[in-house]
């Protein structure tokens, strides 16, 4: 293992004071200087442990999801869009869960603590929602109302716990309302 800058600095600092004969007054000064040097060493941010990767997805997983999303949005093949929609929805629901350690705390404090947010540059739920809307539109274009309902329903599932309505949720609800209106009209028409 290669020594870090901080460990080399600490070894040189301690060896200097170990080999120097000092009087009592100089010893007190050296203790103060040593203490200050130690505080500076700690304050400088020298780390002995390498930071771990804390993101929910690594780059290769995210790039795979991005390729799936771009494929979904660029194809008019109903089966391909449904497969892409299922892949993205599963990733979004898996990534949205929090399975970490839960620290027991008083009920009064528990309501003030929120689940840590996943820090990604792109929202996987938004990608899954957009793909699901596209899959529903493709299904409508091919006359597959059952598959369109399923695709728009995926958006409702993805945004079931949102406190504020999103663009994707509003779009899915509009498409589902249009489907219901169209089915009711077709049932009444002889």
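^ Assign residues to that structure.
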């Amino acid at each position: 293992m290669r020594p870090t800058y901080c460990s080399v600095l600490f070894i040189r600092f301690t060896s200097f004071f170990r080999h120097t004969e000092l009087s009592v007054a100089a010893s007190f000064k050296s203790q103060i200087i040593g203490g200050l040097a130690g505080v500076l060493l700690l304050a400088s941010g020298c780390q002995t442990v390498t930071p771990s990767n804390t993101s929910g997805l690594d780059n290769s997983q995210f790039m795979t999801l991005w390729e799936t999303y771009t494929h979904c949005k660029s194809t008019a093949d109903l089966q391909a869009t449904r497969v892409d929609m299922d892949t993205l929805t599963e990733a979004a629901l898996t990534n949205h869960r929090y399975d970490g350690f839960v620290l027991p705390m008083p009920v009064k404090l528990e309501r003030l603590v929120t689940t840590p947010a996943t820090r990604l540059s792109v929202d996987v739920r938004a990608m899954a929602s957009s793909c699901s809307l596209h899959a529903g539109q493709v299904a409508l274009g091919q006359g597959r109302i059952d598959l369109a309902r399923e695709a728009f329903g995926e958006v409702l599932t993805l945004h079931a716990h949102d406190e504020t309505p999103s663009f994707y949720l509003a779009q899915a609800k509009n498409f589902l309302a249009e489907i219901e209106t169209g089915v009711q009209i077709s049932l009444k028409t002889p």
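Helices lie at 5-18, 24-43, 59-74, 78-96, 107-110, 124-141, 145-158, 167-188.
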